[in-house]
Design brief:
Residues 24-45 are annotated as: Disordered. The protein has helices at residues 9-15, 17-25, 79-88, 148-155, 209-218, 237-249; strands at residues 5-6, 32-34, 41-43, 49-55, 60-66, 73-76, 111-120, 123-132, 158-159, 174-178, 181-187, 196-206, 220-225, 254-259. It has 263 residues and is of the alpha+beta class. It has two domains: 5-88, no CATH class; 106-259, no CATH class. The chain starts with a strand and ends with a strand.
Length: 263
Amino acid sequence: MPRMLDVSDAVRAEIGDEEADRLLAGDNAPGSYDCTSCRTPGDSEQERTSTVLFVGDETAVLAFAHASCLPSQVVQVTEEQLQGAVRSIGTAGGDMAGVEPHGSVPEQAVLGVTSGLVLIDGELHPALVVEPTSPIVRPGTIGTGDDFLPLLIEQGFMPLTELASVPPVLHGWSVLLAMGQLHAVLQPGTNGGQPVAWWQAHQPLQVTDSWRAAANKHQQVLMFAAPVGSIGRQPREDLLRDALDRAAAGGQLVAAALPLAGT
């Protein structure tokens, strides 16, 4: 039976027309599946389903997602990430109660990225809190200052003095959540090109079921950023919120709402 599959041009180019046509005819596509993004069941005979191709250095894995969760796309990952993602397929994932910082960006500036739920105006929102481990100077300059917040403000992030409302959406940026894990924060490519990773997890970052559910509900993630020493490693979400409030009150916090997997 034909499936309600979306196969993007990029995916078709990778897997070939013959394989793509077989998928659309229902030969190689599953009827039921676990969505690679929200991890809940899907049925390609009953609802629009996206084909998502994860491409590593040597291998590739084709996964399926609700079209409302992820568009059909090709996701470039390292071979290590791909093998880890393969091991995660079919598992519930995301039962961690604490938070762990991971990641890096070019110029070897190390960023701590923490996931948590933030209560704003009576509703829980999925959030990422980014704090460098050392001051960030403007590329091409030599100095001892910290340009982390000015650089983000130039990209469109908004300074906050309090967490009273959801920050505006920053179009062109997005958060890639796939296979139930956090993979990257993407920024616009140069000259209108493909989005590139502003931050990418060394290994896909587990998030809690409640965080993932909130992300899929809102279809966006709130990103907060603060200079080194402003937030610290907080073991609980209430302590993380207290640290965010202090940073905002001190003029040391910027934020934006980033669409989910807007690649």
